[in-house]
Amino acid sequence: MPKMKTNSSAKKRFSLTGTGKIARKNAYKSHILTKMSTKRKRNLSHTSMVSDADMGNVKRMLCIGK
């Protein structure tokens, strides 16, 4: 059986934490930032965790687990 390939776009967007969770970047931080407050932009710059509902799809794209 051939090896499973990792999704190239997923490996650029997600990273695995030490505890096994998957980190992601927040949306709405790419352009048209002049109308956004500094506080909102600062809070969007931090990473978030992938929700439990999406965890299966992301793990499949990253070939983590079964």
UniProtKB/TrEMBL annotation:
Keywords: Ribonucleoprotein, Ribosomal protein
Keyword Ribosomal protein included in the entry's annotation: yes
Pfam family of the protein (one): Ribosomal_L35p
GO CC terms: cytosolic large ribosomal subunit
Molecular functions per Gene Ontology: structural constituent of ribosome
Single GO biological process annotation from the record: translation
Family: Belongs to the bacterial ribosomal protein bL35 family.
The protein's name in its UniProt record: Large ribosomal subunit protein bL35
Native species: Pedobacter nutrimenti
